[in-house]
Amino acid sequence: MSPHELATADEWAEHVLSAALGAMDTLAIHLGDRLGWYRALADQGPLSATALAERTGTDTRYAHEWLAHQAAAGMVTADEHDGVRVFSLPDGAAEALTDGGSLAYVSPLARMLAAAASQMPALLDAYRTGGGVSWADLGDDARWAQADINRPWFETMLAPSVAAVPELHDVLGRPDARIADVACGAGWSAIALARAYPTARIIGIDVDEPSVARAREHVRAAGLEDRVEVVHADGESLGGPFDAAFIFEALHDMPQPVAVLSAVREAVSPDGAVVVMDEAVADEPAEPGDLVERLMYGYSLLVCLPDSMSSTPTAATGTVMREPVLRGYATEAGFTDVSVLPIEDFAFFRFYRLHH
Q1: Cβ(280)–Cβ(350) below 8 Å
Q2: pTM score > 0.90 for this model?
Q3: The pLDDT value given to residue 288
Q4: Rounded distance, CA 301 to CA 287, Å?
Q5: Domain regions of the chain by residue span
Q6: Strand ranges, E, within the chain
Q7: What pLDDT, in 10s, does the model give residues 248-278?
Q8: Tens of pLDDT along 315-340?
Q9: Would you state the pLDDT for residue 62?
Q10: d(CA 119, CA 117)
Q11: Which of 72, 100, 173, 309 is deepest in the core (most CB within 10 A)?
């Protein structure tokens, strides 16, 4: 039943109770993810509570309670084996909760929400005073959750998606093309571009030092140090010249998006390509909103808007950056037009090309 269809206090109470159950399930998923319980069940199950605790170096009593909760929530299946209660993780759940290479991987979402929940006192203060809570404040759980949930999409879908747009593919495939990955995070997008275009040189930049360090580690592990460089800098200091520049799911977080876009426009040659990937929200607010609207407003309330508000001055865009807002930023930065690229079914994202 939609909230718009709720009439009585009892119906509203049941609606809130359902939401609370979802929140409890999400935090329980976070426990299972961070303690290695899901992975142990996927790799070694079925397991009893005692066996699960032994294999993961955790407490048996807590493992028992968590398994009981997971069975009650329908996350695991329970059976009797030689008089001992054992638990299994279904194959679909194992992929969604433990396979970091799967497009269905969702455990990082629980990690992100747990990170935000841990900052609730700071969020309350920010909401009262107009202050902010930065990504640095949210810490590693949020930082690596963001990287991990986007990684399989970059590794699996970025190359074929870009290749399916001929005018973009041609630019990236130029001999010795220079490509900027602005706000590259943990480096997965830069690595994916380098693998897709073996003659290109990729320059990733990010303002977050831990992300830069992690991205450099990933580049070394991928054996791409000769073509991928990761620099600690902000988007406004982007130098050139570049054949192309990408901003993957980051423009809405930036306190000064117009300044960054202006720097990108100056850095990329007029016959090059500037691409912004951001949330595929509707052009106009919808009430009630669909899954994408609700998810992105949730991110905005807990993560993206507080991060933007932690800087001064700030555009305070928030996660729900609708196409007209992006077009306004692009026009102010000196771009002449914005087109939506024909890239679909790429998670919850939309790809825009900004034209000189």
Answers
A1: yes
A2: yes
A3: 84
A4: 17
A5: 3-98, 113-355
A6: 77-81, 84-88, 178-182, 201-206, 228-232, 242-248, 268-279, 337-340, 349-355
A7: 999 999 999 999 999 999 999 999 999 999 9
A8: 999 999 999 999 999 999 999 999 99
A9: 98
A10: 5
A11: 309
> 3-98 architecture in CATH?
Orthogonal Bundle (1.10)
Burial of 258 (0-12, 13-18, 19+ CB in 10 A): middle
84 pLDDT band (50/70/90 cuts)? very high
Element (H, E) at 250: none
Query: Could you say which of 3.10.450.50, 3.40.440.10, 3.40.50.150, 3.60.20.10 is the CATH number of the domain covering 113-355?
Result: 3.40.50.150
- Alpha-carbon span 219 to 62, nearest angstrom: 38
Contact 180, 172 (CB under 8 A): no
Closest to 336 measured CA to CA, from 345, 344, 327: 327
At 260, which amino acid appears? Answer: V
> Could you tell me the two tokens for 266?
């100056």
The whole-number pLDDT of residue 236 equals: 87
